[in-house]
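Consider the tokenized backbone below.
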């Protein structure tokens, strides 16, 4: 299952990483209701398939033993023993993993990162999530929270971030950032006519990353400029992370990756120019995810299956 801030998705996954059946529900706000939703989604799928284990990919910090959620900004759980509680209710083994970790695991087994030794996954959506495999093994840090890439400080005294810092990478490279950049550009170029200006005239908050991407696809110059800025910051941030981990492949996932044709080549160019020792070192391949929206779910299922061996 993929437990996100807006929806809870369940999928029946076979040993080859194929999703055979799915169920989806909106994410409830209370802890009890959230666990009820998980139990009920598994229950529904278990009437149609033989379910042998459950993996939960969670948008939050998971303990190293994969049993508890420490903190999840958009979910009700705080230091919650989720795996044991769900396991008792379903009478099935349950394992937890951070969603980006689960996604990189799935891309490594079944998708874009197959055969690589050092793989980095950057999930760009509302914010940035990161997953890292070193020598084919998940790197989770000493306490299970690595790699937290979205809040690397890229711009000194830059845009304020809800995390309390400013200039964080995800303030410049995410769906949210696309909207912010577009609104800033509109203010700076008041004469320029664009689809987005009509949008802003109605309500500034009605501009979303998705709308900016759609406008860029339709040839709107201001939206394309916002997209180019995202590409620059993506390349810049990747160069920074690559200096630390020297990955063989970088997999770009998340909702924004659906618009990759609008920014990925520019991001690669910027990455190539910015990285330390540019021109004198082998560079990571930068690709989009192959499993799309299912990556976290498939990775969580794969972990659950590993536990059954
Ligand atoms: Zn931040």
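A designed sequence for it:
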């Amino acid at each position: 299952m993929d437990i996100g801030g807006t929806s809870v998705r369940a999928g029946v996954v076979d040993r080859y990483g194929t999703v055979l059946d799915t169920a989806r529900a909106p994410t409830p706000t209370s802890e009890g209701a959230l666990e009820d939703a998980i139990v009920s989604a598994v229950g529904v799928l278990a009437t149609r398939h033989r379910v042998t284990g459950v993996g939960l990919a969670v948008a939050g910090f998971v303990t190293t033993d994969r049993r508890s959620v420490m903190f999840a900004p958009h979910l009700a759980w705080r230091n919650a023993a989720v795996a044991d509680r769900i396991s008792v209710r379903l009478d099935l083994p349950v394992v937890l993993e951070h969603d980006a970790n689960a996604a990189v695991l799935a891309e490594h087994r079944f998708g874009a990162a197959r055969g690589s030794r050092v793989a980095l996954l950057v999930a760009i959506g509302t914010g940035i999530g990161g997953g890292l495999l070193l020598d084919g093994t998940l790197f989770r840090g000493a306490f299970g929270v690595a790699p937290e890439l979205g809040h690397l400080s890229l711009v000194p005294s830059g845009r304020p971030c809800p995390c309390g810092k400013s200039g964080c990478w995800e303030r410049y490279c995410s769906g949210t950032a696309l909207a912010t950049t577009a609104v800033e550009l509109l203010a700076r170029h008041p004469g320029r006519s664009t689809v987005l200006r009509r949008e802003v005239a109605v309500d500034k908050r009605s501009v979303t990353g998705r709308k900016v991407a759609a406008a860029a696809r339709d040839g709107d110059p201001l939206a394309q400029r916002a997209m180019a800025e995202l590409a620059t910051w993506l390349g810049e941030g990747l160069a920074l992370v690559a200096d630390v981990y020297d990955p063989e492949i970088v997999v770009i996932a998340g909702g924004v990756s659906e618009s990759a044709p609008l920014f990925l080549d520019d991001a690669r160019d910027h990455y190539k120019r910015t990285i330390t020792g540019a021109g004198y070192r082998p560079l990571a391949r930068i690709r989009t995810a192959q499993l799309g929206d299912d990556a976290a779910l498939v990775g969580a299922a794969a972990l659950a299956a590993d536990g059954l061996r």
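The CA atoms of residues 272 and 302 lie 34 Å apart.
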